[in-house]
């Protein structure tokens, strides 16, 4: 199928700032820029927007047929090391299970490329993500512009704490993380160029109906496609407009989100149809997505009763299937929470907001721990681990399962310390014997109140004398397996999907019989 993206209309030059944050400036440029070679989806350098080619494709696809945007940071190192990078990328692609055709190009940190090892091993078992957790000396921490707040919106950390020795110190935590982020960035601005939004339509082809929500990185509208009359969701990417601010321009997290979502093709992942431009000087960028009437956060706030067990099973299965697709394709979402789970009146659940998602390789590289909205953030990240993997998403899924069952957040911590305390108060304070390696995590030296037992069952009883929600042995086993403190022992997405809870009565409700809800205002 030929798409509207095939002709070049707009070229955009991205200027990488010296800031420690992922932020690029978008400048219109009249010159087409040649497409660069392939790279894994990652941090800095290359980006291709490419639409999946066929609705028949179930597996991952990445093609140049539809949209293409090329972001190429021409940092001096990139130029000097081009040959070397190509060679290393070839090695990586041969090792990677993500098809070359899919991740034709991506955001690739030249630094990560330079330090990538030719002997990267692709694990073969379902636990590949665990067995490869080995520290790599001298690697750089990937900086993330986007950071999370405690509950829902994903805005930046306003206050952060560090568990240092026996106490928290705000400054120490911030400065150590900040230093690492600074170290990752080039010392001088890097110039780059990209072909972007090839032949993309104008947003004028859409009638905005109402604003659905405003998040940190985008304003989401319900809109009608004038051509097809279809109702869609338009997410306008928020630019940082103050030129005198360090962070200025087009957020790299948004480029990453667009790239990942365009390449994904799964019923549990929100479908991005195209990218359109418009607004002043045609410089605003919008993602056109399928529209879903609700998100789970809003639904749970409005519902009078929690979801029934069979409804929770239906939602959990869809969530797990979407995350299975991501993890199989080496993508960690890193911000799973109810407001990022959309639901429609056909009982479908779809994961959205991939601004924090990233593709990763094996062995695991150190990433920033400032990901995942605090209430859904796993203990290893709260304790300062920089090497982590798909298990972080599994913790968030455990928190979501608990919330679906009880209709209230499981660990609504106010600060990071409070978050850890709330977790340990329910699941028990970890020791070296139950979580080997725990005591060497950066923030583990703090004095936590000692709680010797796991009290999760008290929150989710098998019998209720007051008519509350009950959870069977198997259901509890799944929940407890997801909420395992040691990420090495936490259930993988495959293990969760195959869990016997989904096979006992009440069986998962069919999507067709899921309840419908009035549209949100
Ligand atoms: N395709 C969609 N259909 C309907 N509503 C949507 C869609 N995508 C997003 N939304 C709504 O908009 C909200 C914000 O979207 P999204 O999380 O993608 O934006 P964001 O700026 O990245 O937000 P955050 O600050 O939470 O990271 C979602 O919680 C959801 O309510």
From TrEMBL:
<keyword id="KW-0547">Nucleotide-binding</keyword>
<dbReference type="GO" id="GO:0010520">
    <property type="term" value="P:regulation of reciprocal meiotic recombination"/>
</dbReference>
<dbReference type="Pfam" id="PF00069">
    <property type="entry name" value="Pkinase"/>
</dbReference>
<dbReference type="GO" id="GO:0016444">
    <property type="term" value="P:somatic cell DNA recombination"/>
</dbReference>
<dbReference type="InterPro" id="IPR000719">
    <property type="entry name" value="Prot_kinase_dom"/>
</dbReference>
<keyword id="KW-0723">Serine/threonine-protein kinase</keyword>
<keyword id="KW-0808">Transferase</keyword>
<keyword id="KW-0067">ATP-binding</keyword>
<feature type="region of interest" description="Disordered">
    <location>
        <begin position="144"/>
        <end position="195"/>
    </location>
</feature>
<dbReference type="InterPro" id="IPR008271">
    <property type="entry name" value="Ser/Thr_kinase_AS"/>
</dbReference>
<keyword id="KW-0418">Kinase</keyword>
<dbReference type="GO" id="GO:0005634">
    <property type="term" value="C:nucleus"/>
</dbReference>
<feature type="domain" description="Protein kinase">
    <location>
        <begin position="206"/>
        <end position="502"/>
    </location>
</feature>
<dbReference type="InterPro" id="IPR045267">
    <property type="entry name" value="CDK11/PITSLRE_STKc"/>
</dbReference>
<protein>
    <recommendedName>
        <fullName>cyclin-dependent kinase</fullName>
        <ecNumber>2.7.11.22</ecNumber>
    </recommendedName>
</protein>
<keyword id="KW-0597">Phosphoprotein</keyword>
<dbReference type="GO" id="GO:0004693">
    <property type="term" value="F:cyclin-dependent protein serine/threonine kinase activity"/>
</dbReference>
<dbReference type="GO" id="GO:0010584">
    <property type="term" value="P:pollen exine formation"/>
</dbReference>
<dbReference type="InterPro" id="IPR011009">
    <property type="entry name" value="Kinase-like_dom_sf"/>
</dbReference>
<feature type="region of interest" description="Disordered">
    <location>
        <begin position="81"/>
        <end position="102"/>
    </location>
</feature>
<comment type="similarity">
    <text>Belongs to the protein kinase superfamily. CMGC Ser/Thr protein kinase family. CDC2/CDKX subfamily.</text>
</comment>
<dbReference type="GO" id="GO:0007346">
    <property type="term" value="P:regulation of mitotic cell cycle"/>
</dbReference>
<dbReference type="GO" id="GO:0005524">
    <property type="term" value="F:ATP binding"/>
</dbReference>
<dbReference type="InterPro" id="IPR050108">
    <property type="entry name" value="CDK"/>
</dbReference>
<dbReference type="GO" id="GO:0000398">
    <property type="term" value="P:mRNA splicing, via spliceosome"/>
</dbReference>
<dbReference type="GO" id="GO:0032953">
    <property type="term" value="P:regulation of (1-&gt;3)-beta-D-glucan biosynthetic process"/>
</dbReference>
<feature type="compositionally biased region" description="Polar residues">
    <location>
        <begin position="148"/>
        <end position="157"/>
    </location>
</feature>
